[in-house]
């Protein structure tokens, strides 16, 4: 972006064409190198939280063009899950992995990444109970762990370059991080789920090196072709190291593949939503859907009354398929909703149209000494100090964190509750009109009144209680509070009684009214 904005514009990354050109230049430095180079890109935002450039370019295309191994990102801080990994397969067959990092500040997560002959393996360490650790040296001294560098994890590997034969790939290799003196290590293969407890193969590993930080490197031959042709999600690998006192250090069980087939990650719904969708493309869809539903609430009853009840047209199932009384009751409810309150309907329509085309609020998005900017559903608009003119569409799709929660969590429930209250009142009036016992009480004043759950308006009280809950939940939004108070002013008091419909055989359902004391 040419200019920086205050929040919420830190939700999405906004690369420019110049930024991607600079990244392309950096990744192209090794194109003429005869040796194979493993390329790993580190960035802050996941690709699903990165907006396109002015020309519509996206970083995924650039990553695939340069055959990077992985894109390591952050930003989400384990807020939506711990398996925020995505395998990218582009249309031209290029591939790369996207691995989101946990955060050290709040969750105390550290990642150990190893490159083994062009293949990447990593291990995430959860050190939440060790917040006093501040340096990498203290981290290595605090915990013993093993990182298997080969064979690769079947859930985090690439298809390309995964060879079955060769002296390099037919090995088990592992790094052991510990302050103990490791004397030996072994690899254990389990046939899962046939014999999950009894190992199908077990062999010792040879120590190849050890550095000054007591990081041990073990390896041993493994005939991967012996596992070829079997189910790729069948075999698990574990490495166990022994220190001088006989204590064990075990690695996590690793699902490995011998034929280069990737095992699909099992995401939760939040992980799937955050990683598998480009949120920039979803914002226009959710925005149009919200306004379509809001306008549908306002226009549908009037269209039904005009075309069906007044013009006599029918849509869908014929009225003969339903009993006349049931169909008339439905028409009466719709007619009452349409004629309930013209003032309320106009206020709702003006509100929706204003939110669609006008600014929502104004603020100093650059600083107190800069001109005010306005935010609408199309983004921020602000005068540019460097040149004459108005900058529009800034901060898109970041504004979705304000626009969509307001539309879906406040305005849509508000409209639903308004029409539910209208429908409940019409239903009570129809019930009281058709109640034979009520009619007998009207004729005979000596009969003691009886208790009726429908006439007691318990459903209405429940709806109002839910409305109050929504009001309390969103009380921090001043505009919403004002709108709710105005629209629900006539519903704050329970009517004592609802008179019967004054019905005539010549009256149409839309002419029926229900009066209150």
From TrEMBL:
<feature type="transmembrane region" description="Helical">
    <location>
        <begin position="463"/>
        <end position="488"/>
    </location>
</feature>
<feature type="domain" description="TMEM62 Ig-like">
    <location>
        <begin position="142"/>
        <end position="260"/>
    </location>
</feature>
<dbReference type="InterPro" id="IPR056229">
    <property type="entry name" value="Ig_TMM62"/>
</dbReference>
<keyword id="KW-1133">Transmembrane helix</keyword>
<dbReference type="Pfam" id="PF24394">
    <property type="entry name" value="TMEM62_C"/>
</dbReference>
<dbReference type="InterPro" id="IPR029052">
    <property type="entry name" value="Metallo-depent_PP-like"/>
</dbReference>
<dbReference type="InterPro" id="IPR056230">
    <property type="entry name" value="TMEM62_C"/>
</dbReference>
<feature type="transmembrane region" description="Helical">
    <location>
        <begin position="285"/>
        <end position="309"/>
    </location>
</feature>
<protein>
    <recommendedName>
        <fullName>Calcineurin-like phosphoesterase domain-containing protein</fullName>
    </recommendedName>
</protein>
<dbReference type="Pfam" id="PF24384">
    <property type="entry name" value="Ig_TMM62"/>
</dbReference>
<feature type="domain" description="TMEM62 C-terminal">
    <location>
        <begin position="284"/>
        <end position="476"/>
    </location>
</feature>
<feature type="transmembrane region" description="Helical">
    <location>
        <begin position="345"/>
        <end position="362"/>
    </location>
</feature>
<keyword id="KW-0812">Transmembrane</keyword>
<keyword id="KW-0472">Membrane</keyword>
<feature type="transmembrane region" description="Helical">
    <location>
        <begin position="399"/>
        <end position="421"/>
    </location>
</feature>
